[in-house]
Amino acid sequence: MSAADYSDLPKQGNPRKRKAWDWFPLYQERWLEDTKKLTDAQARVYFDFLCISYRRDDGILRDEDKWIAIELRCSLQKWCAVKAFLLTRGLLVHTVCGGITNPKVMGVARERQQRSKSCAKSADKRHQSPRLPLGQVP
């Protein structure tokens, strides 16, 4: 996937003003394969990056190194080195809107957005046609 594939996603609001997702999919084999050539420190930073990415509805973080380093609780120098390595491996990608993310996070974010829209439509339908108590006829 290219960065252009992510350009149509809506902008993200403040993640602290909404309910955060409390889990994300982690496939053991994929994780082990993706992190095989990472050091322990790089793997930790990458995992923390995934965690803060999944807190966002769209999965995209603004590509501001100082802000991301603070969120990851690591030095700016360490984040920049890990980021460069992860970008070359394709584990991180830049978006056209000036963000940075992981391609898998983008897929999950789109699925969640579609599911939320579907649930909202179902809820609207339920509210439009109220149900009568059992045994009552309209």
Structural class comes to: mainly alpha
Average pLDDT works out at 77
Q: In sequence order, what are the helices and strands, one letter per element?
A: HHEHHEEH
Instruction: Give the number of helices.
Output: 5
Radius of gyration, in Å, reads 19 Å
Widest sheet, order of strands: 1-3-2
In whole angstroms, how far apart are the ends? 53 Å
Portion in helices? 40-55%
Largest sheet: 3 strands, antiparallel
Give the uncertain stretches in residue-range form.
Answer: 1-12
Tally of DSSP β-strands: 3
Our estimate of the beta-strand percent is: 5-15%
Shape: elongated
Structural features, described:
There is one protein chain. With 138 residues, the protein is mostly helical. Helices cover 51% and strands 5% of the residues. It is built from five helices and three strands. The protein has helices at residues 28-34, 40-54, 65-72, 76-89, 103-128, and strands spanning 61-62, 93-94, 99-101. The chain has a three-stranded antiparallel sheet. The radius of gyration is 19 Å and the shape is elongated.
Summarize the structure.
This protein is mainly alpha-helical and 138 residues long.
Task: Please write out the topology.
Blueprint: H1 28-34, H2 40-54, E1 61-62, H3 65-72, H4 76-89, E2 93-94, E3 99-101, H5 103-128
Antiparallel strand pairs: 1-3, 2-3
Helix pairs in contact: 3-4
Main features:
about 140 residues, mainly alpha, three-stranded antiparallel sheet, 5 helices, 3 strands, about 5% strand, disordered N terminus
